[in-house]
Amino acid sequence: MRYVVAIDIGGTDIKAALVNENLEIISSSLRPTPKLDSAAVKTIATIKEIVNELSKGYTVSALGVCVCGVFDDINGICIWSGNLDWKNVHLQELLAQELAIPVVAGHDIRTAGTAEMRNGAAAGYANSIFIAIGTGIAASLVIDGLIRSADGYAGEIGHLDVGGDAQCVCGRKGCLEAEASALAISTAYEKAAGKSGVSTEEIAKLVRDDDPIASQVWNDAMLALARACETLITTLSPEAIIFGGGLAKSRELLINPISDALDKRLTFQRKPELKIAHYESTAGTVGCAMAAFDLINEAL
Question: Model pTM?
Answer without folding.
Answer: 0.91
